[in-house]
Amino acid sequence: MSAPYEIMTGPLEVWLAPVGETFPDVDATPGGNWTKLGSNGKRNIADDGIVATHEQTIVEHRNVGSTGPIKAVRTEESLNFELTLEDLTASQYAKLLNDVTVTTVAAGSGIPGTKEITLHQGAAVATFAFLAKKNDSPYGDSWSMQYEVPIVYQADNPAPAFKKGDAVGLKCKFAALEDPNAATEAERFGTLIEQDATAT
Description:
Elements: E1 13-17, E2 35-36, E3 51-61, E4 71-85, H1 90-96, E5 103-105, E6 114-116, E7 128-134, E8 145-154, E9 170-176, E10 191-194
Antiparallel strand pairs: 1-2, 1-7, 3-4, 4-9, 5-6, 7-8, 8-9, 8-10
């Protein structure tokens, strides 16, 4: 990326892990239990990219002596990351269907090798730690930035459409839940980290 660095282009790469997994440093490649979303990462994300949405509900207060609002209170907020995954492998499809188990059947005499997932999700909702990472920063192209969200769930309704000439896409929305173990109230949805200097 060339200057001006603060005007950013290009996709993020999404990683998922069990809730509680340690986030990598902003300048490090995710390891441990972090799994890239998409067999080929950002190359499996549709061209409309990844949209981070900060939603809120504000209630305005007026009193009998004023015509305009005199106070505003936020009563609801949410953080969502939306994308379309173009990867129909069982392991990726399973993540979006409540992280169901992938069953592998080895090929044998008269038996084809298969990977199988169940389609019923049940009442319990699977949660993940969520990392969306970009290998450049608004402060320079040799640095990185990342969203670190401690708890998300997949909130959208994947609707794969099998059509002539079009890639099959799985719509998904990773919705943040408040982290009860956050160090401060402000960090309950996690943090956005933008690197502005190289480690010494």
